[in-house]
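Re: that backbone. Tokens:
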């Protein structure tokens, strides 16, 4: 349960970061709705407004709300199972938070993360992210950030393999290389690739994140992706 508590603390920290974030060049205004049901459920649902296109904002807001509310609905359904012992039900919990990672020049990148416990040896934790052009409503996959035929994949794959080795994970992590399904978000300094529990490694590794400096990718982004190195 100590690991679960640590995860939940991290989720709540995401919510704090979201409230405190913001820069002078910020494109979107970010607010959130809070859902609390006793001590077991605390959910922050973010939404964007102002700056960019209204249809793009609505699209992103729907994606974020559906991600969180869908998982919350599944959680509520699972804890009503009559076969679940009462002592497990007493420990059930669901938390989610978010953090705005990039919010400049109409490019917006946000992470939503959550943790829940419905029984078993450990909790379940998850993360979703979206990187969108708030003018056009374009939701980017990783390859779509870059110029066609550029060597972005080799740079990212080599950096991730390097970090796996540095962390001593060679025997545990099965890294397949990045592709269009790879989960990521961006910050001012880093492109961050991440994986969910069990996706490429055992549960003990958690949700591994790999950090690729934006400077190493500068010049490879498409003209429509306005990421400026600092």
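Recovered sequence:
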């Amino acid at each position: 349960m100590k690991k679960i508590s640590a995860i939940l603390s991290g989720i709540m920290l995401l919510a704090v970061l979201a409230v405190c974030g913001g820069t002078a060049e910020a494109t979107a205004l970010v607010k959130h709705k809070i859902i609390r049901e006793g001590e077991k459920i605390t959910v922050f649902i973010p939404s964007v407004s102002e700056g960019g296109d209204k249809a793009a904002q609505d699209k992103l807001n729907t994606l974020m709300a559906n991600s969180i509310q869908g998982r919350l609905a599944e959680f509520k359904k699972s804890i009503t199972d009559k076969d679940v012992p009462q002592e497990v039900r007493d420990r059930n919990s669901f938390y989610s938070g978010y953090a705005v990672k990039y919010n400049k020049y109409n490019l917006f990148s946000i992470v939503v993360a959550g943790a829940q416990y419905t029984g078993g040896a450990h909790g379940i934790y998850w993360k979703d992210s979206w990187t969108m052009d708030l003018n056009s409503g374009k939701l980017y996959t990783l390859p779509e950030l870059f110029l066609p035929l550029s060597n972005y994949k080799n740079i990212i794959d080599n950096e991730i393999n390097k970090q796996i080795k540095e962390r001593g994970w060679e025997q545990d992590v099965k890294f397949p290389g990045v592709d269009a399904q790879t989960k990521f978000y961006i910050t001012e300094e880093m492109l961050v690739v991440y994986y969910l529990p069990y996706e490429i490694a055992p549960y003990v590794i958690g949700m591994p994140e790999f950090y690729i400096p934006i400077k190493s990718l500068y010049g490879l982004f498409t003209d429509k992706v306005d990421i400026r190195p600092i």
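The chain is about 30% helix and 30% strand. Residues 157 and 177 are 6 Å apart (CA to CA).
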